Protein backbone atom coordinates (compact mmCIF):
# COMPACT_ATOMS: atom_id res chain seq x y z
CA UNK A 1 0.00 0.00 0.00
CA UNK A 2 1.85 3.02 -1.23
CA UNK A 3 0.12 5.93 0.53
CA UNK A 4 -2.16 6.05 3.54
CA UNK A 5 -5.11 8.09 2.32
CA UNK A 6 -5.70 5.81 -0.65
CA UNK A 7 -5.97 2.72 1.50
CA UNK A 8 -9.71 3.02 1.06
CA UNK A 9 -9.45 4.11 -2.58
CA UNK A 10 -7.46 1.10 -3.78
CA UNK A 11 -10.53 -0.67 -5.10
CA UNK A 12 -11.46 2.40 -7.14
CA UNK A 13 -8.00 3.06 -8.49
CA UNK A 14 -7.63 -0.59 -9.40
CA UNK A 15 -10.86 -0.27 -11.32
CA UNK A 16 -9.23 2.10 -13.78
CA UNK A 17 -8.07 -0.21 -16.54
CA UNK A 18 -7.56 -0.48 -20.25
CA UNK A 19 -8.29 -4.22 -20.23
CA UNK A 20 -11.39 -5.51 -22.02
CA UNK A 21 -14.28 -6.31 -19.69
CA UNK A 22 -16.08 -9.67 -19.92
CA UNK A 23 -19.57 -9.69 -21.48
CA UNK A 24 -22.41 -8.52 -19.20
CA UNK A 25 -25.36 -10.85 -19.59
CA UNK A 26 -28.17 -9.06 -17.76
CA UNK A 27 -29.36 -5.42 -17.65
CA UNK A 28 -28.40 -5.23 -13.97
CA UNK A 29 -24.87 -6.44 -14.67
CA UNK A 30 -24.58 -3.83 -17.39
CA UNK A 31 -25.79 -1.12 -14.99
CA UNK A 32 -23.21 -2.17 -12.39
CA UNK A 33 -20.52 -2.16 -15.06
CA UNK A 34 -21.62 1.33 -16.16
CA UNK A 35 -21.03 2.66 -12.65
CA UNK A 36 -17.66 0.97 -12.63
CA UNK A 37 -16.79 2.43 -16.03
CA UNK A 38 -17.79 5.93 -14.91
CA UNK A 39 -15.46 5.66 -11.92
CA UNK A 40 -12.73 4.20 -14.13
CA UNK A 41 -12.94 7.08 -16.59
CA UNK A 42 -12.88 9.71 -13.85
CA UNK A 43 -9.87 8.15 -12.17
CA UNK A 44 -7.99 7.70 -15.43
CA UNK A 45 -8.50 11.43 -16.03
CA UNK A 46 -7.35 12.21 -12.47
CA UNK A 47 -10.78 13.58 -11.50
CA UNK A 48 -11.11 12.00 -8.09
CA UNK A 49 -13.95 14.28 -7.01
CA UNK A 50 -16.11 12.88 -9.82
CA UNK A 51 -16.00 9.47 -8.13
CA UNK A 52 -17.53 10.67 -4.85
CA UNK A 53 -21.12 10.81 -6.22
CA UNK A 54 -20.66 7.21 -7.40
CA UNK A 55 -20.07 5.96 -3.83
CA UNK A 56 -22.68 4.68 -1.39
CA UNK A 57 -23.84 7.06 1.32
CA UNK A 58 -22.06 5.02 3.98
CA UNK A 59 -18.85 5.04 1.98
CA UNK A 60 -18.92 8.82 1.73
CA UNK A 61 -19.64 9.10 5.46
CA UNK A 62 -16.63 6.89 6.18
CA UNK A 63 -14.36 9.06 4.03
CA UNK A 64 -15.68 12.20 5.71
CA UNK A 65 -15.03 10.66 9.13
CA UNK A 66 -11.43 10.01 8.11
CA UNK A 67 -10.97 13.58 6.91
CA UNK A 68 -12.67 15.05 10.00
CA UNK A 69 -10.46 13.01 12.35
CA UNK A 70 -7.37 14.13 10.45
CA UNK A 71 -8.46 17.75 10.83
CA UNK A 72 -8.74 17.57 14.62
CA UNK A 73 -5.62 17.80 16.78
CA UNK A 74 -4.48 15.09 19.14
CA UNK A 75 -4.92 11.34 19.30
CA UNK A 76 -8.49 11.12 20.61
CA UNK A 77 -10.19 11.60 17.21
CA UNK A 78 -7.97 8.89 15.72
CA UNK A 79 -8.73 6.38 18.45
CA UNK A 80 -12.43 6.50 17.58
CA UNK A 81 -11.67 5.13 14.11
CA UNK A 82 -11.22 1.53 13.01
CA UNK A 83 -7.59 0.68 12.13
CA UNK A 84 -7.91 1.14 8.34
CA UNK A 85 -9.63 4.50 8.79
CA UNK A 86 -7.03 5.49 11.39
CA UNK A 87 -4.27 4.57 8.95
CA UNK A 88 -5.83 6.84 6.34
CA UNK A 89 -6.36 9.73 8.76
CA UNK A 90 -2.82 9.52 10.08
CA UNK A 91 -1.58 9.45 6.50
CA UNK A 92 -3.52 12.59 5.68
CA UNK A 93 -1.88 14.34 8.60
CA UNK A 94 1.50 13.24 7.28
CA UNK A 95 1.01 14.42 3.71
CA UNK A 96 -1.25 17.46 4.14
CA UNK A 97 -0.88 20.45 6.44
CA UNK A 98 -3.55 21.65 8.89
CA UNK A 99 -4.68 24.53 6.67
CA UNK A 100 -5.02 22.20 3.69
CA UNK A 101 -7.09 19.72 5.67
CA UNK A 102 -9.38 22.47 6.92
CA UNK A 103 -10.21 23.73 3.46
CA UNK A 104 -10.23 20.51 1.44
CA UNK A 105 -13.33 18.40 0.87
CA UNK A 106 -13.12 14.65 0.37
CA UNK A 107 -13.31 15.30 -3.36
CA UNK A 108 -10.48 17.84 -3.16
CA UNK A 109 -8.31 15.30 -1.35
CA UNK A 110 -9.09 12.66 -3.98
CA UNK A 111 -8.11 15.08 -6.74
CA UNK A 112 -4.89 15.95 -4.95
CA UNK A 113 -4.00 12.31 -4.32
CA UNK A 114 -4.42 11.35 -7.96
CA UNK A 115 -2.59 14.36 -9.36
CA UNK A 116 0.25 13.92 -6.88
CA UNK A 117 0.68 10.30 -7.96
CA UNK A 118 0.41 8.94 -4.42
CA UNK A 119 -0.19 5.42 -5.71
CA UNK A 120 2.93 5.35 -7.82
CA UNK A 121 3.19 4.40 -11.50
CA UNK A 122 1.33 1.70 -13.42
CA UNK A 123 -1.23 0.78 -10.74
CA UNK A 124 -4.20 1.76 -12.88
CA UNK A 125 -3.14 -0.06 -16.04
CA UNK A 126 -2.46 -3.36 -14.24
CA UNK A 127 -6.03 -3.97 -13.07
CA UNK A 128 -9.43 -4.96 -14.43
CA UNK A 129 -12.95 -5.98 -13.39
CA UNK A 130 -13.96 -9.60 -13.89
CA UNK A 131 -17.43 -11.21 -13.79
CA UNK A 132 -20.17 -9.43 -11.84
CA UNK A 133 -22.78 -11.18 -9.69
CA UNK A 134 -25.99 -9.40 -8.71
CA UNK A 135 -28.17 -10.46 -5.80
CA UNK A 136 -31.05 -8.15 -4.99
CA UNK A 137 -29.74 -4.69 -4.25
CA UNK A 138 -26.15 -5.83 -3.85
CA UNK A 139 -23.56 -6.80 -6.44
CA UNK A 140 -19.96 -7.88 -6.43
CA UNK A 141 -17.34 -8.03 -9.16
CA UNK A 142 -14.09 -9.95 -9.23
CA UNK A 143 -11.22 -7.49 -9.15
CA UNK A 144 -8.16 -8.60 -11.09
CA UNK A 145 -4.62 -7.30 -10.71
CA UNK A 146 -2.04 -8.54 -13.22
CA UNK A 147 -4.69 -11.06 -14.31
CA UNK A 148 -4.90 -12.50 -10.79
CA UNK A 149 -7.83 -12.16 -8.36
CA UNK A 150 -7.35 -9.39 -5.82
CA UNK A 151 -7.96 -10.01 -2.12
CA UNK A 152 -10.85 -7.53 -1.99
CA UNK A 153 -13.79 -7.62 -4.43
CA UNK A 154 -15.44 -4.62 -6.06
CA UNK A 155 -18.75 -4.28 -4.22
CA UNK A 156 -21.83 -2.29 -5.24
CA UNK A 157 -25.13 -1.34 -3.60
CA UNK A 158 -28.26 -0.07 -5.34
CA UNK A 159 -29.38 3.18 -3.73
CA UNK A 160 -32.27 5.24 -5.05
CA UNK A 161 -32.43 3.05 -8.14
CA UNK A 162 -28.76 3.60 -9.06
CA UNK A 163 -25.76 1.37 -8.42
CA UNK A 164 -23.11 2.86 -6.16
CA UNK A 165 -19.63 1.61 -5.22
CA UNK A 166 -19.42 0.25 -1.67
CA UNK A 167 -16.08 0.59 0.15
CA UNK A 168 -17.08 -1.25 3.34
CA UNK A 169 -15.17 -4.41 2.42
CA UNK A 170 -12.05 -2.33 1.77
CA UNK A 171 -12.22 -0.81 5.25
CA UNK A 172 -13.06 -4.14 6.87
CA UNK A 173 -10.27 -6.05 5.14
CA UNK A 174 -7.75 -3.30 5.82
CA UNK A 175 -8.68 -3.18 9.50
CA UNK A 176 -8.38 -6.94 9.88
CA UNK A 177 -4.96 -6.92 8.24
CA UNK A 178 -3.69 -4.08 10.43
CA UNK A 179 -5.00 -5.71 13.60
CA UNK A 180 -3.30 -8.97 12.72
CA UNK A 181 0.04 -7.43 11.82
CA UNK A 182 0.00 -5.18 14.88
CA UNK A 183 -0.63 -8.21 17.10
CA UNK A 184 2.22 -10.14 15.50
CA UNK A 185 4.56 -7.18 15.96
CA UNK A 186 3.69 -6.86 19.64
CA UNK A 187 2.69 -3.22 19.18
CA UNK A 188 -0.66 -1.51 19.63
CA UNK A 189 -2.44 -0.60 16.42
CA UNK A 190 -1.63 3.12 16.48
CA UNK A 191 2.07 2.50 17.11
CA UNK A 192 2.18 -0.08 14.32
CA UNK A 193 0.42 2.30 11.91
CA UNK A 194 2.86 5.07 12.82
CA UNK A 195 5.74 2.72 12.09
CA UNK A 196 4.26 1.86 8.69
CA UNK A 197 3.83 5.52 7.81
CA UNK A 198 7.39 6.30 8.79
CA UNK A 199 8.56 3.77 6.20
CA UNK A 200 6.79 5.65 3.41
CA UNK A 201 8.89 8.05 1.38
CA UNK A 202 8.57 11.60 2.63
CA UNK A 203 7.58 14.21 0.07
CA UNK A 204 8.79 17.83 0.15
CA UNK A 205 6.85 19.67 2.83
CA UNK A 206 5.05 16.50 3.86
CA UNK A 207 6.45 16.06 7.35
CA UNK A 208 4.08 18.43 9.08
CA UNK A 209 2.84 18.29 12.63
CA UNK A 210 -0.38 19.44 14.30
How would you portray this structure in words?
It contains 9 helices and 5 strands. The chain is 48% helix and 14% strand. Helix 3 crosses helix 5 (83-95) and helix 5 (83-95) crosses helix 9. The radius of gyration is 17 Å and the shape is globular. The chain has helices spanning 10-15, 27-44, 57-71, 76-79, 83-95, 98-103, 106-115, 168-185, 189-199; strands at 127-135, 138-145, 148-149, 154-159, 162-166. The protein has 210 residues and is of the alpha+beta class. Mean pLDDT is 81; it is low at 1-20 and 204-210. The chain has one domain (5-199).
Q: Give the domain tally.
A: 1
**DSSP helical segment count:** 9
Strand share of the residues? Answer: 5-15%
Main sheet record: 5 strands, antiparallel
What are the main properties of this structure?
single chain; 210 residues; 5-stranded antiparallel sheet; 5 strands; globular; disordered C terminus
